[in-house]
Specification:
about 200 residues; mainly alpha; Rna Polymerase Sigma Factor, Chain: A; Arc Repressor Mutant, subunit A
Length: about 200
């Protein structure tokens, strides 16, 4: 499905049509997953990535009244902001837990630890999963992205996932347009090599 939804579909979703909102999200789902994989890097497990995509959809559903259509790619940009905020919250939580191990206490009998107030698998049941076509291809892309440097992931994220122009990226990164174009070209070549030469258009 096209990740650039029509104004008509947005209008239907704004009028309260849940199927229209589902279609908007479905059109952005694979692209959103790749964006989160790029930003999260190798520290983000596949199951956490799936959960983040699903959480982003639930949060976007709650916040949809705040969304304003501003062009064919504006829904994805808005959804990406929601998802990246969820990712930032997760990263801050993980970082805080690593800094303060005093919050941990041993579980009875097995020597493992838990964090007070945390939800654990035996209590929460199965986490949300997003069904994605081409699971193997997605996993291969995730592994390839994890091999790139932070700069390479960032420029690919801004250009291919968030849809910014070279000039917009240059302004954000404090570089010249030509420098960004060169960085992006090199990053895409590295990604293509890491994927065995498939699936990346330069």
């Amino acid at each position: 499905m096209d990740s650039r939804p029509s104004k008509r579909l947005v209008d239907h979703a704004a009028a309260g049509d849940p199927q229209a909102l589902d279609q908007l999200f479905a059109g952005c789902q694979a692209r959103l997953r790749r964006l989160l994989a790029l930003k999260g890097g190798s520290a983000l497990r596949s199951t956490e990535l799936d959960d983040l995509v699903q959480e982003a959809y639930l949060e976007a559903t709650r916040q949809f009244a705040d969304y304003t259509y501003q062009g064919p790619d504006s829904f994805f940009r808005w959804l990406a902001t929601v998802a990246l905020n969820r990712l930032s919250n997760l990263q801050r939580m993980v970082s805080a837990q690593k800094r303060d191990r005093r919050l941990e206490r041993p579980l009875q009998g097995d020597g493992s630890t838990i964090v007070p107030g945390a939800v654990h698998p035996e209590d929460a049941g199965p986490g949300p999963r997003t069904l994605v076509v081409g699971v193997e291809a997605e996993a291969r892309l995730d592994r390839a992205l994890a091999t790139l440097s932070a700069d390479d992931r960032e420029v690919i994220t801004l250009a291919r996932m968030q849809g910014l122009s070279l000039q917009e990226i240059a302004d954000r990164l404090g570089r010249t347009r030509n420098a960004v174009a060169l960085l992006l070209s090199r990053a895409l070549r590295k990604l293509k090599t890491a994927m065995g030469g498939d699936g990346v258009d330069e």
